[in-house]
């Protein structure tokens, strides 16, 4: 069995970019749909000076894009990931109101609370999901929002591609 914490702790920004080239069409479409839904949700709930946390931020693409789109709200974004080199490189980008922190999302304590917590396509990789839920709870303000997503193997395009692979 692969030690996922060790694997993700050694990833850097370039390895995330390289892996993205290998995603198939259905995964890309799933991501586009997810990002659109999150943006629509943000437009409804983001308030001035909102604080957003992205647990397991990976390449940082989600919060970088959200940070750019919602600058007018002066929202602040924090991304947490295991990859030390990844986090260093992301912080070198110096994105306004956005910082990245190296940490394990099953036990990190940022000593602050957030209006919105994101955990996108991460939960299925966790060894101790109950610990992760405690981390989420610890970082949420009263009446805050949690946006969580996981991959879905049961959607039409993936089934169609599976059928075509047989020919």
Structural description of this entry:
By secondary structure, this protein is α/β, with parallel strands linked by helices. It has one domain (about 5-165): Vaccinia Virus protein VP39 (Rossmann fold). About 45% of the residues lie in helices and about 20% in strands. It has seven helices and five strands, in the order H-H-H-E-H-E-H-E-E-H-E-H. The chain has helices at about 5-10, 15-20, 25-45, 60-70, 85-90, 130-140, 155-165; strands at about 50-55, 75-80, 100, 115-120, 140-150. A five-stranded parallel β-sheet has the order 3-2-1-4-5, with helices on both faces. Strand 1 (about 50-55), helix 4 (about 60-70) and strand 2 (about 75-80) form a beta-alpha-beta unit. The longest helix is centred in the N-terminal third of the chain and has 21 residues, at about 25-45. It is globular, with a radius of gyration of 16 Å. The mean pLDDT is about 85.
Characteristic key phrases:
Rossmann fold; 20% strand; globular; five-stranded parallel beta sheet; alpha/beta; 167 residues; single chain
Largest pleated sheet? 5 strands, parallel
Shape: globular
Total DSSP helices = 7
Radius of gyration: 16 Å
The total beta strand count reads 5
| Annotated CATH topology | Rossmann fold
Helix % is: 40-55%
Series of secondary-structure elements, N-terminal to C-terminal: HHHEHEHEEHEH
| Strand percentage | 15-25%
Query: Average pLDDT across residues?
Result: 84
Quaternary state of this entry equals single chain
Known CATH architecture: 3-Layer(aba) Sandwich
Low-confidence stretches: none
Give the CATH level 1 class: Alpha Beta
**Number of domain modules:** 1
As laid out across the biggest beta sheet, the strand order is 3-2-1-4-5
End-to-end separation in angstroms reads 32 Å
Structural class: alpha/beta
Task: Please identify which CATH superfamily we are dealing with.
Answer: Vaccinia Virus protein VP39
């Amino acid at each position: 069995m692969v030690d996922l914490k060790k694997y993700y702790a050694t990833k850097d920004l370039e390895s995330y970019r390289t892996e993205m080239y290998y995603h198939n069409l259905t995964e890309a479409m799933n991501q586009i749909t997810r990002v659109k839904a999150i943006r629509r949700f943000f437009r409804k709930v983001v308030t001035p000076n909102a604080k957003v946390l992205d647990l397991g931020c990976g390449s940082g693409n989600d919060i970088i894009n959200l940070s750019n789109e919602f600058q007018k709200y002066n929202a602040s974004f924090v991304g947490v990931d295991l990859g030390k080199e990844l986090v260093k490189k992301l912080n070198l980008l110096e994105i306004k109101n956005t910082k990245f922190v190296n940490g394990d999302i099953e036990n990190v304590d940022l000593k602050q609370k957030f209006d919105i917590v994101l955990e996108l396509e991460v939960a299925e990789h966790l060894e101790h999901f109950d610990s992760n839920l405690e981390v989420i709870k610890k970082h949420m303000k009263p009446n805050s929002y949690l946006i969580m997503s996981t991959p879905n193997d049961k959607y039409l395009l993936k089934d169609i591609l599976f059928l075509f692979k047989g020919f």
